[in-house]
Design brief:
The structure holds two protein chains of two kinds. Chain A is built from eight helices and 18 strands. By secondary structure, chain A is α/β, with parallel strands linked by helices. In chain A, strands 7-11-6-1-4-5-12 form a seven-stranded parallel β-sheet, with helices on both faces. A five-stranded parallel β-sheet of chain A has the order 15-14-16-17-18. A three-stranded antiparallel β-sheet of chain A has the order 8-9-10, covered by helices on one side. In chain A, a hairpin with a 4-residue loop joins β9 (126-132) and β10 (137-143). The longest helix of chain A has 18 residues, at 303-320. By secondary structure, chain B is of the alpha/beta class. A nine-stranded mixed β-sheet of chain B has the order 11-10-9-12-8-1-6-7-13, sandwiched between helices. Chain B has a two-stranded antiparallel ribbon with strand order 2-5. A two-stranded antiparallel sheet of chain B has the order 3-4. In chain B, α2 (68-77) crosses α5 (189-197) and α3 (92-106) crosses α4 (125-133). Chain B is globular. The interface between A and B is large, with 92 and 82 residues.
Chain lengths: 322, 248
């Protein structure tokens, strides 16, 4: 009756968020007095998962599952959960996991809690804390079903390394044609670019930057910090930056460790999208900007003077601490 | 083509979030309710299908009578008729179950829902609905075209986008990108007058099965004041980010 965790990978490499969901699964398994089983898709070397608390890995190798497919993946995870008698299935909150989790929950007749931010308050009744009202509140949700599906918010638990070995076992779920009735025609992904979803640091620019031609210093800061770049809604609406960089209520949510906002005043819709970021820094020349109320650290100053200087300082810091 | 657009009745973004009854219920006092923003993008895309391809568009909400002004607004924007399933929305599964019945009864080809509502942010109803009715499903959908029985959709993925094809019936978890914000429609006087005459059918719930229960709410601890740093002393910021926040 192990806790099952879905380990996401990309081109055979595990995504960092997967180590966090594995660590979380280990904690939940400890509370329930059971072990952790992971399921991987087309991943070759799974031995390192033992370091994050996984006891056993079900390895699915299937060329048809090379591209993510919500229906097929959820069908495979369902079969893994049934085989292992798992009462709890843990997933991340990546775009793909959020896509498949509701399908899986229905297949397993399980209650699903998304955006979970802590280990269960209790396992009997099974009660978890999750965010609601776009991070303006927490909601404690009791899951009444025998099987539970948990979507863990990024950076909510952290990665915890342990001593352990993961035993690998090949697993061949039976998949039908219906699992592939949504066809992936093409994937268009920016390579070598840190994504907002995966980034530990996000550097974001707003209207205060006055035009797309001034984004060089934002990109430079992102380069130095290994960060993703983002922007406020007006900036994407004006076409200065792509929509995929728009952070906020109707844009992307940010749950990075550090969020640096340059020239963003902090409209309520924007703040709703970044509430889950751990540390927030704002640079703005208007001391009355609402962002100063939401930020941990603030600099009242002209971005065009502050950011280049800050970039130099960050470079020095990185060189010293390399 | 018969389209059903799922409409969540949610507190306006700027609402103050408070709770009553020992922090077990959302305090609706003084709160303005609106069409969930992600659903509004979907509704506008449905209007496009109606105008360009002759689709019919119904809207649906699971909720009490207090949600009717939100449905009337959707009618004023151009939907043909509205359905209200007369039961409070208590969890994502229950809502999906009720919607599944509406979809089956109405024999809809395409269901457009928002990727998530801005109140409970569950992000589960569209996917659960699709699974319950055995329809194809595309989440985080930012583009949708339909030709006959075939749909071509683009969905946002982490760090890019993906183009997908599927046949109808199809459920979409939509978001900004399905249409641009500048394309969203504000009901005009004619639309508001017409909406009064359009059918708003109240149907009784099929069942009340839930799988989860929101037992209590809590607001985050108040945040401390911002630490202001002199722009001429950026070393201090770096020191704080490194040693205090441990963020770099």
């Amino acid at each position: 009756m192990s806790v099952l965790v879905y380990i996401e990978s990309e081109e055979g490499k595990f995504k960092k968020a997967s180590y966090e969901v594995a660590s979380y699964a280990k904690e939940v398994a400890g509370m329930m007095g059971t072990s952790v089983t992971a399921i991987t898709f087309n991943a070759e070397d799974v031995s390192e998962l033992g370091t994050y608390g996984v006891d056993k890995v079900l390895k699915v190798s299937n060329e048809k599952l090379k591209n993510f497919n919500a229906e097929a993946y959820s069908d495979a995870i369902k079969q893994a959960a049934e085989k292992e008698g798992s009462k709890v299935v843990v997933l991340s909150q990546s775009a793909n996991s959020k896509y498949l989790a509701p399908l899986l929950a229905v297949q397993l007749e399980a209650g699903y809690a998304s955006n979970v931010v802590a280990v269960p308050e209790s396992t009997d009744p099974f009660t978890v804390q999750r965010t609601a009202f776009t991070n303006k509140a927490f909601n404690f949700t009791k899951i009444d079903t025998d099987v539970k599906v948990i979507g863990l918010s990024k950076n909510a638990f952290g990665i915890k390394e342990v001593q352990g070995d993961a035993a690998a076992e090949d697993f061949s779920p039976s998949l039908s044609e219906e699992d592939f009735s949504v066809n992936v025609e093409s994937v268009d992904k920016a390579t070598n670019k840190v994504t907002i979803a995966d980034a530990e640091v996000v550097v974001s620019g707003g209207r205060g930057l006055k035009g797309p031609e001034n984004w060089g210093m934002i990109e430079e800061m992102a380069d130095i910090l290994g960060a993703a770049t983002a922007c406020s809604k007006p900036v994407s609406d004006m076409g200065w930056r792509p929509h995929s960089e728009h952070v906020g209520q109707t844009g992307k949510p940010v749950a990075s460790n550090l969020y640096i906002a340059v020239g963003i005043s902090g409209a309520i819709q924007h703040l709703a999208g970044i509430n889950a970021a751990k540390t927030k820094v704002v640079i703005n020349n208007d001391p009355e900007a609402p962002f100063f109320k939401a930020a941990d650290y603030g600099i009242v100053g002209d971005a065009f003077e502050v950011v280049p200087k800050l970039n130099e300082k960050l470079k020095e810091f990185k060189e010293k601490n390399a | 083509m018969k389209i059903l657009v799922c409409i969540s009745h949610v507190p306006d973004t700027t609402s103050k979030i408070n709770f009553t009854d020992g922090d077990t219920k959302f305090d609706t006092n003084g709160v303005q309710f609106v069409i969930n923003p992600n659903d509004e993008f979907g509704l506008t895309r449905a209007m496009w299908f109606k105008e360009k391809q002759g689709a019919s568009v119904d809207v649906v909400n699971v909720g009490g009578a207090e949600t009717e002004p939100t449905l009337r607004k959707a009618l004023a924007i151009g939907a043909d008729s509205a359905i209200r399933v007369n039961t409070p929305a208590t969890d994502g599964y229950q809502v999906a179950k009720e919607l599944a019945k509406v979809v089956k009864d109405g024999e809809y080809d395409l269901v457009i829902a928002g990727r998530e509502s801005i109140d409970y942010n569950g992000g589960m109803v569209p996917g659960m609905l699709a699974q319950l009715i055995k329809a194809n499903f595309v989440n985080n959908c930012i583009s949708l075209e339909i030709e006959g029985e075939k749909a071509k959709a683009i969905r946002e993925i982490d760090g890019g986008k993906e183009t997908l094809t599927a046949s109808l019936p199809l459920v979409i978890g939509g978001q900004k990108g399905l249409v641009e914000e500048s394309d969203l429609r504000i009901p005009n006087m004619r639309g508001i007058m017409q909406a009064r005459k359009k059918p708003l059918n109240v149907v009784e719930p099929a069942e009340t099965a839930t799988k989860t229960e929101a037992v209590k709410f809590e607001k985050p601890a108040p945040k401390g004041d911002v630490k202001l740093i002199d722009p001429d002393n950026l070393d201090e910021l770096i020191d704080l980010l490194h040693n205090e926040a441990k963020a770099i």
